[in-house]
Specification:
Elements lengths: L33 E16 L4 E15 L5 E13 L16 E13 L7 E9 L4 H6 L20 H5 L6 E11 L2 E5 L4 E3 L8
Parallel strand pairs: 1-5
Antiparallel strand pairs: 1-2, 2-3, 3-4, 4-6, 6-7, 7-8
Length: 205
């Protein structure tokens, strides 16, 4: 997904269950962690990654939890749940076949890992709605080389972990990354680098 990691990949921290259909188990923090972040927020007009380029606009709710471990390290987990929409002429996420019609479906995703930061600011609650500025025109480009026309928001954790932000998130480690997109009997799974399966929209007769 386009806006989901710290600086190095522009975004990909960024729906989901204890065990994804793709088989990725969620990480569990070690004993005696301290919950320092427990927030949700809504994202609209983000762009979903495929094997050949961005293939769909996505709107979702994201739930983020961060625990401080006894050694001072932070363990994080981020879950996503939402809706994807693609368009006639866009490329399918797997094989890159042109879509014959508009289509939409549901998706879920999970990210987790670790980082370090000093200082940090505890936070809980709902952080509002954020528009990432993706458009149908972006999706129809079928590439990663052309940026979105909308503004790119700053990494959402920066205000709460200023120590890590000042260091460019150099200690950031992602240990699980899986997004599962569904359409009727079709499934596409994105692991942060490549995807398996495909979603191809056909015209209804």
């Amino acid at each position: 997904m386009k806006k989901l990691l710290p600086v190095a990949v522009l975004v990909a921290l960024v729906a989901v269950f204890t065990l994804l259909a793709a088989g990725t188990a969620l990480a569990r923090p070690p004993a005696h962690p301290k919950l320092v972040m427990n927030v949700t927020y809504k994202v609209i007009n983000d762009e979903a990654n495929g094997n050949v380029g961005f293939w769909a606009l996505v709107d979702y709710t994201r739930h983020v939890q961060v625990w401080q471990l006894p050694d001072g390290t932070f363990s994080w987990e981020s879950r996503f749940e939402g809706k994807w929409t693609t368009f006639a002429g866009a490329y399918s996420p797997g094989a890159g076949d042109p879509q014959a019609a508009n289509g939409w479906g549901r998706f879920e995703g999970v990210l987790n890992g670790t980082f370090t930061s000093d200082p940090y600011i505890p936070v809980r609650g709902h952080l509002g709605t954020h528009d990432f500025g993706g458009t149908e025109a972006d999706i129809l480009l079928g590439t990663y080389s052309a940026p979105q026309t909308g503004a790119t928001p700053s990494f959402f954790l920066d205000p709460y972990f200023p120590g890590a932000a000042a260091d460019g998130w150099s200690t950031w480690v992602t240990t699980a990354f899986s997004f599962t997109y569904r359409y009727r009997h079709q499934t596409f799974v994105w692991d942060g680098n490549t995807g398996t399966g495909d979603i191809v929209i056909t015209k209804r007769k």
